Amino acid sequence: MKKFNETVEQNLGRLEQYVPIVAKVHGGSHPEFHDVRKLFDEINEKVRKAELEKPNLDNEFKQLRQITDNYTVPGDVCESYEAVYNMLEEIDKAYQG
Known about the structure:
The chain has 97 residues and is an all-alpha fold. The protein contains four helices and no strands.
């Protein structure tokens, strides 16, 4: 739980900045990113509502792993896109741990 909270704290702010920008820049050529954004918004909302409790994010992370092919970064994207996948994967692993 502590690791999950720390990981969320380290990454959530940057994800809030990056996700909308990446969706705008890459959403046309990578429509799956719109689903990633939707799931991120759901995760973000659940985390904020849960405060110190661990939210139930099993379904959201399961869907993210499917949509992103286990966070596989497409070859034609920018560093911000890659950073989003890396941060989401880090949060997912901390959640599972």
